[in-house]
Amino acid sequence: MNFSQLDYHWFQIINQLxxxxxxxxxxxxxxxxxxxxxxxIGVVIYWFTRDDVKRRMVAESLISACGALGFSGLIGHxxxxxxxxxxxxxxxxxxxxxxxxFPSDHAIGAFVIATSIWIxxxxxxxxxxxxxxxxxxxxxxxxxxxxxxxxAGAVIGIAAAVGVHQFFTRSSLALxxxxxxxxxxxxxxxxxxxxxxxxxxxxx
Length: 204
Description:
Layout: H1 3-15, H2 17-20, H3 25-34, H4 36-47, H5 52-78, H6 84-87, H7 105-120, H8 122-141, H9 147-170, H10 172-203
Helix pairs in contact: 3-8, 5-7, 5-9, 7-8, 7-9, 8-9, 9-10
């Protein structure tokens, strides 16, 4: 059995669970289609706690995500792979365009943010990584990705987050520039807050 056959074999095992354990399908649909928004909301909440470490964490996660998703686009262009539902008869539980399957952008996005959080906040990071794993698994369950798609996405996401963090840790100049950009944003943020507070006091 070659790799492609093995990949499809495991896809069938996981995808068939949607038939044998159908009571879990609503949860899997939710994870596959909407759980990624939990990460976006989490990033926004972490940012607006206005804590320096958390803002560096968010900045690193966004830089990592941009790099990882850009790399994913190149892979999808040069090593195009059809979705499982294009090539095979599958139990497809969610609607999805018939675009590139490899690697999984959902897995990349979830794991790159989860790993960035884990680097800075170990306990919370474990929960985020668990959610990322659930999203990756649900994408196979619902019939829109092969196991290797989500595994590759997880590896790319984790590698990007670790690589970016190491870059800023080892390069004092790069870290200085990052902090200056965050400081510039905070100056603008403070001005907006003061302006809004002035308006609210006048209206009273």
